[in-house]
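Appendix B. One record, verbatim.
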Amino acid sequence: MSKMLHFAAALLLAGCGKEVGRIPFYGEGSNSATAVLSAGKVAFWTDIDLSYTGSAKLEYRVALLQGGSPVATVVCDALGRMSATRMWLEVDRGSVHSRSGRGKMECSATLLKGGPTTVDVNLAFGVRPLSATVSRADLVLKQ
């Protein structure tokens, strides 16, 4: 039975993909990076450490460009439901909330062709909390 559990865990980890790009954030703002991406699905993860008071929605607005032209755009909710997590800690005490760890967001993009891809990202609160401390909010691309 233990071999079966190890096999299942390996399949789960393999399904998460390999990190192919990371765009760092330490608060709201814009940033970009270039990564060599393969044709096919690009999964977006957050590597986050933040605390906030009140209601909040934190969004990554992502544009993927190849040869200077947009090939995909997506909006990802950094505080929404995560389909997979790693070292994830989520605490809610009344109106005070914190999130820390890595989570696979429920957003993705599909590239028709591979190659150097510029990833332009804007990180902003769609719903602004009463207060917030963002220690880290990296956008991670996996394939």
